[in-house]
Write a structure and sequence with these properties.
Number of helices: 7
Radius of gyration: 19 Å
Helix content: 25-40%
Bound molecules: adenosine-5'-triphosphate, magnesium ion
Shape: globular
Largest sheet: 10 strands, mixed
CATH architecture of the largest domain: 3-Layer(aba) Sandwich
CATH superfamily of the largest domain: P-loop containing nucleotide triphosphate hydrolases
Number of strands: 10
Length: about 280
């Protein structure tokens, strides 16, 4: 372990929720088990995962393919109930899906193809009770924030992949969620667009002060986007380590390289292919 890096939890060596203040965390994932029913058996995907997220934090979930990252995100969104443990938002459990936890997915087809850019952002606001004028103002405001003020009347098929993801981000943020859940939102983009959107996301998050739970396969993305990185082990998964990356500095700094190497080692130990020269794993 490097002296310069803080780790909050190492599975098996301590309880990551121990010693916290009585005030409930914004998000508390407490010894959660998740899985799916087959014909007869319950297949556990996430065995025992715990972490807490404070307001305005950016938490990244990283781990081998199939370890249950998307499953965890869906459970936080309220689509799947834990089979053991609990997920609490501001102390509340038995979560149903709601606009307080907006989700941005990886796929470019998450927009309504028959609605314009503006219509895509207005629609969920209206469904969630906003009046027509209010929804219109909020949608325009958030599309401006994501750099799409000039594309309000376009339809999804007239947008690039990066623009579609910006619409999805604007749509999620317009709901003013307490937590923005992002499941590899930039995974299908080319490296340059991806890097630009990562920077833009950081700016937007700083301006809106939203709390983010971000899933990625990329160590570099985790380091650019995250405050803390929850490294998951193979399925049925648990937390290997929670690494604080707030102070890592720019990509050419020594500490960045050290933390990056540490994360690569953790993921390599889990059998994830780690290519020495790859920007993204
Ligand atoms: N709807 C489903 N029904 C049954 N099993 C599922 C379902 N969704 C996921 N699984 C299984 O749960 C496990 C975890 O899947 P999940 O999609 O959460 O992994 P992941 O970490 O997001 O992977 P990736 O990095 O490839 O996206 C896998 O074994 C997967 O096959
Ligand atoms: Mg996934």
């Amino acid at each position: 372990m490097m002296p310069s890096m803080r780790t909050d939890a190492v599975q098996g060596t301590g309880d990551p929720l121990a010693g916290r203040s009585a005030q409930p965390a914004l998000l508390s994932v407490d010894h959660v088990q998740l899985g799916y029913w087959g014909r007869r058996d319950f297949n556990v995907a996430v065995a025992d995962v715990s972490f807490e997220v404070e307001p305005r934090e950016k938490i990244v979930l990283i781990g081998p393919s199939g370890c249950g990252k998307s499953t965890l995100l869906k459970a936080i969104a309220g689509y799947i109930a834990p089979s053991a443990g609990s997920i609490r938002v501001s102390g509340r459990d038995t979560l149903k899906p709601g606009p307080d936890r907006a989700v941005v997915f990886q796929e470019f087809d998450q927009l309504f193809p028959w609605r314009t850019v503006l219509g895509n952002v207005v629609y969920p606001l209206r469904v969630n009770g906003a009046g027509r004028a209010d929804a219109d103002v909020r949608a325009r405001e958030h599309l401006e924030l994501t750099g799409l003020g000039g594309a309000l009347d376009r339809f999804p098929h007239q947008l690039s992949g990066g623009m579609k993801q910006r619409v999805a981000i604007a749509r999620a943020l317009a709901l003013k969620p307490a937590i923005l859940l992002m499941d590899e939102p930039f995974g299908s983009l080319d490296a340059l667009t991806r890097a630009r959107l990562q920077r833009e996301l950081n700016d937007i998050v700083a301006r809106t002060q939203v709390t983010v739970v971000f899933v990625t396969h990329s160590i570099d993305e985790a380091l650019v986007v995250g405050d803390r990185v929850v490294v998951l082990a193979n399925a049925p998964s648990s937390v290997q380590e929670i690494v604080d990356v707030r102070e890592v500095g720019p990509p050419d700094s020594t500490q960045y390289s050290e933390v990056r190497r540490h994360l690569r080692r953790l993921l390599a130990a889990e059998g994830e292919e780690v290519d020495e020269d790859a920007v993204f794993i």
